[in-house]
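User: Predict the structure for this protein chain, please.
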Amino acid sequence: MIRKHIAALCTAVALVAGLGHPALAGKDDDTLRVAWGTSGAMVNADNYYGNTTTGFHFSKLVFDMLVEYDAKSGEFQPGLAIKWSWIDDKTLEMELKPDVKFHNGASFGADDVAYTLNTIAADKSAAMQRFTSWIDTVEKTGDLTIRIHAKEPFPQALAYLAGPLPIYPHEYYKEVGPEGMNKMPIGTGPYKVVEMKPGEQYTLERNDDYIGGFKQKAHIKNLVIREIPDAQTQAAELMAGGIDFSGDMTPDLIARLQETPDITARMAETIRVFYMSLDAEGRTDVKPMTDRRVRQAINYAIDREAIVKNLTGGAARVLYTPCHPAQFGCDESRATKYPYDPDKAKALLAEAGLADGFSVDLYAEAPAYEAEAILGYLQAVGIKANLKRLPWEAAHEAQVANKVPVFLTNWGSFTIPDVAAIASVFFKGGDDDTAKNPDVIASLEAADKEPDPEKRKAAYGNALATISEEAYWVPLFSGVKSYAWSSAVEFEPNPDGALRFYEATWR
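Assistant: Here is the predicted structure, written as structure tokens:
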């Protein structure tokens, strides 16, 4: 497989080199040229309605959030809000940064925060509404002061506000809506949009009026982002000088690029969680999934250590929890461990009356490089899995329509460092909950509104222990982001995986 990719890469390099480039990547014109898109193009630059990883990266460049999270220190830092305090369990008061301008020249203030968050919190059609549904109202208390009133105690508010919740200019957004924001995004961020070619290319320019802080002013003047859905083509472009940076390399290409002069290639862990969800509730017609012994057998059947070693070069970590240990409340000690044990898997299947195995459709979010290995492990214990690779949107739609018995996918929590952004999303009784365990739902409900950190951790631990023991998921490993960039660029991957190009410099 690796030789096949390398041969294809060499061919692609030759083709790209033959085409030539009117403006090769590099620092001569102070333009950083970036490629992304192997996991799908950005659906909407208004990430409240786009809900894609690339959209989140774009948001970090063009927009600002109220709060920033320092993934290195684990501390929350000022963003558009410079001070905050809890008035009571349901009221968060914030003082906003003065003298901030949007890219269209409009002054930033409390009206923008109130309109943005109130609008999304009320719009159930917004893809990111789940991250604002805790908000009752946002009240303007002064030109640069607001109060966020939660429906219930919501101690993870800062973690959510530091995540996928950009603030928009209220008059502009009221006029153009999500469609207009997609055509011409206007934010306060370190880069401003010059040109949008959806699905093709986005041209950004440094916001020289940006007031830096924890999120700093951009060093590089121009940023051109190209949507290139094929990793081999991205690698070829990088080697031929057409781009300076790719955050979308496949693991098998990283080893090849590490041997290439003038290119830095690295794999770094993120808080993304790769997992398989199992239809424990019995929403599909694959009834073996409702038997805990079968679900546990699937957990025992998979050699997570081998997958991590062979597909991530050891950069990931094996997981047994439906969360990442870096997230608040993710207590690994409460998880039931399922080491690789195919004999134990076969014994459990026999105990469940399935000694001869069974067949099941395994839906996988493309590209799912680990899918073939998982098929082999399942086959070895008697489970014939029929692989159905689909884009996430299509696979998720099928799951909500009760057609998916096993779903191989991943979740990045939008970099939110809290268990609420993953366990509470998938196990609190919503459409994505394939278990609907009332005890788990009750524990998560209690944890999500508990202001005392230790009590909150304990409640999350109770939920995680049950999810793990019942084997509602097959947690696999943490996500790894594979980066490659020109040696002319100084770039340091961030633990949350966000592409903060405003931190990049030329060597």
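Residues 67-172 form a domain with the Dipeptide-binding Protein; domain 1 fold (CATH 3.90.76.10).
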